[in-house]
Amino acid sequence: MPNIIIDEEFQALLPQLDPLELEGLTQNILEHGCMLPLILWNDILIDGYNRYSICTEYDLPFNTIAIELETRDDALEWMITHQLARRNLTSMQNSIYRGMLYNLEKKSHGGDYWTDRQISRGHNDPSRSSTADKLSDRFNISPRTIKRDAEMAEVVVAIGRVSLDAKQEILLEKTKISRKKLRGLSKASEEEITNIAQSIEDGTFDAKEFQNNATVQETDYNKTNDNIKQSFELNNDYINDLVKSLVAPIVSAANSFGANLHKLNQNSDSSDVKSMLRSYIDDLERLYEGM
Question: Is the pTM of this model over 0.70?
Answer without folding.
Answer: no
